[in-house]
Amino acid sequence: MKENKTQSKLGTGLEHRDIGQTGALKNSASQTARPRFKIKFTDYAIEKFTSSFMVGDRIKLRAYTSFDITKTSVLKGLTLCQYKKSMKKYFLLRYWFNKRACKITIGQFIPGKFGIKQCEDKVYEIAREHQDDKGIWIKNPLDTIRLKETRIERAVIDDSLKLTINEVIVRLCKANFPRAKREGRLTASSIQMKCKDLIGHNWRTRHLIFIDDNKGNGKVHFKANYSKRTTKPEDWDDLFKKFPAGHGINKDKRDNPKGERSVYDSNMGKYVIDELNPGLVRKYIEKKHRSFGTKKNILDTFKTLWAFAIDEKLFGDKIPTNPTKQISFKRPEESKSPGSIYNDLLFTHEQKDTITKTLIKNSDKYPFQTEALLFMMCTGRRAEETLKIKKSMISWGHEIVKIDGEDLEIFGKINMPSSITKARRKAVVYITAPVKWVLDKLNTMTSGTYQAYKFLDWMFPTTRINKKRLHDDYYVRSDQCRVKELRGCWRAMAKETGIFGAIKSLRKYFATYCIEILGSSSEGMFMSDHMDSATMDRSYNKAHDEKLKNYAVRVAKIFDFKKASNE
Predict the structure, then answer these.
(1) Domain identity same for 325 and 444
(2) What's the pLDDT score for residue 468?
(3) Helix (H, G, I), strand (E, B) or coil at 452
(4) Containing domain of residue 78, as a range?
(5) Burial 301-313 (b: 16+ CB within 10 A, else e)
(6) pLDDT tens string 369-425
(7) Do 234 and 348 have their domain in common?
(8) pLDDT tens for residues 92-117?
(9) Is the pTM value of this prediction over 0.70?
(10) Backbone region of residue 433 per phi and psi (left: phi > 0; alpha: psi in -120 to 50; beta: other values)
């Protein structure tokens, strides 16, 4: 009787019995109780054993089976629990504490990883902390576990927040590349550049489309890649699943001549971001022979990553010192960038006229690209700003401005929102005679050969537009429908005329000519919207408006596109 009472206290009455008793035998006086089945406490026996989940005519979702262990052992009360659905097996310790039956899971049985040796060690450790010398439970292990869960030590908190650089990169991608100093996201071009350093030089970026919304916030969309025969990723998780770290690296010498690897695909990505220091960052950037511009871009990328980690509170209570603040690179005396040979180039007035005539002549070969370049020439606007202008930004009107006794016309203005300008501030382009010539030319094109483009809001739509999707409102509003590159048209002009230079040289010519006509550098920067002048009042008040009109018509006199088109 004593033995049966002891077994009851150990919870063996709740254990699974493979051999049940029938109702017929239950009332038989001659029947003797069959002994409970017990498993040998060996890894081999446990691995080969499969529980019977039948109790009478019922199926149990889990079954408990005792181990063949002596009653005096510390392992007394140890059972095997197996779940029917997963068929997984767990070591379970049953015990009595304060006249209450308790149980605690020791661990899952995994052959070769967690077996009887590991189970014994864990049970002995629990027993030493919670039993007296006689094997009586003086503390409840469950209370110890609950205390640890509610009273988390600082070290545990710190460990939980430590993320690798790669993990932070994934979080940055999922957050859509937010700005560091103000609300909103980076522009599409900026995101594309960051992606190149963070996850690029890899087939991953061949599945990404970078688009600006109406507010100038960049957004990443996914696409299939037919050359790689990969489907469109569902999301960022799917993209990184398709191309995990170290896989899908672009080894094409044409696309990746220096064999570059992104941060995500390098050993740098394996570091915990808290461990970053100036030495590690500098070593990574200077590991390869990179140009000054490349080094600067990678450093800016690390700055973006660090700022994001701070904003998202990924460092816990103690924020490490920013490792990027102590790093700078000396600008070389001579730039090695291919375009640097044009840094000191300044077009003459004669070259400007030749460029104008050639562009107009080749307009049919490079529609909308030609007009964009002419617009940049007579306004001094940047290419990335010009190509984002929409027809809805145009406000037509007619006004006469008197300059030195001469009546000069203004036909309205183009209100450029802060979302498309580099300085992130509003700008106005007055529609002078040369600007009107460009706009009239565009209107003629969309009324004739490119009539399908008439209802597009982009001022410079791309000829690669999918006409089958013109009914798709989202598509026609997206920047997939605008011109993004002007190099083809520019190179054709250079080859024909022998006048070589960078596209940005048009802006430099405009700014220089403004200084020449208007008489000072401040007025020149005022017209070209350079950001370096601290003396200019950037609020759009009446004085600013009148001044800009005056300057615009004076500068516009040199750009006679109508005459050039007739020659």
Answers:
(1) no
(2) 87
(3) helix
(4) 2-151
(5) bbbbbbbbbeeee
(6) 999 999 999 999 999 999 999 999 999 999 998 877 788 889 999 999 988 888 778
(7) no
(8) 999 999 889 999 999 999 999 999 99
(9) no
(10) alpha
